[in-house]
Amino acid sequence: MKTIVLKCGGSVLDELSPAFFDGLRSLLEDGYIPVLVHGGGPAINSMLSLYQIPSKFQNGLRVTCEKTMEVVEMVLSGQTNRQLVRLLEHHDLIAVGLNGSDGKCLQAEYINKEELGFVGQITAVNKKMIEKLLVDRIIPVITPIAASMEETGARMNVNADYAAAAVAKALNAERCLFVTNVDGILVEGQLVEEATESDIQSFIADGHIYGGMIPKVESALSVLGNGIEKVMIVSGKKAFYQSGIWTGTAITSKERVF
């Protein structure tokens, strides 16, 4: 079973174009089964503001108290997950939404409960649950909410990039795609079609990759290995895959031979 994991950030959900869904359909036609993991940052921020709960971040991670966790789960499971499933079905793609904590699909442990609260890092993925959907060519749409390995019934907020990476590794996916609002990595305005790990480090050091792109490429790098030879940064506004041709920046652990 050929699996492709795609991570869709909350900021791009409203920008996904018909061409993007054409790309998903092309994957299915060519024998790949997509798995989607999504975030929901902007919608979470709006809901926290509505409830007058302050948003706090530490090293790029949302500090998640008990009240914040309730809002995070409400938004991700009840809003953004539903939105993405509806979009897929609108484009004639069969999808099922999964809250990551359901059936312990995603399991996590605290990173630092004292400083971050209910924020976890994935320690295990119940891949059998996901694979049951894949066998029937159903697209799983997974929230980055995990079941706690340390407290029965507790849920944990997980960075969606790292959740996608964990799912990709567990499924031994052929590629993990990070869907953004840009075509890929741009250096001096030009799309970099392929880069190695050392290229990425050079781009960061030289300032070509900066700001919000840094965690994206670092998460992409974390997926390499375990049978996954390439990860990609692609646009949600275009067909990232069509007739065997990928569009975006492919990142590989192997150095190019000149």
From TrEMBL:
Enzyme Commission code: 2.7.2.8
Catalytic activity: N-acetyl-L-glutamate + ATP = N-acetyl-L-glutamyl 5-phosphate + ADP
GO biological process: L-arginine biosynthetic process via ornithine
Site residues (Transition state stabilizer), renumbered to this chain: K7, K216
EC primary class: transferase
Top-rank taxon, per record: Bacteria
Classification via SUPFAM superfamilies: Carbamate kinase-like (SSF53633)
One GO cellular component term noted in the UniProt record for this chain: cytoplasm
The keyword Kinase is assigned to this record: yes
Record flagged with keyword Transferase: yes
Keywords noted in UniProt: Amino-acid biosynthesis, Arginine biosynthesis, ATP-binding, Cytoplasm, Kinase, Nucleotide-binding, Transferase
Subcellular location as annotated: Cytoplasm
Domain Aspartate/glutamate/uridylate kinase span(s) in chain numbering: 2-235
NCBIfam families reported for this sequence: argB
Family named by the database record: Belongs to the acetylglutamate kinase family. ArgB subfamily.
Function in brief: Catalyzes the ATP-dependent phosphorylation of N-acetyl-L-glutamate.
The protein's name in its UniProt record: Acetylglutamate kinase
Species, as recorded: Mesobacillus foraminis
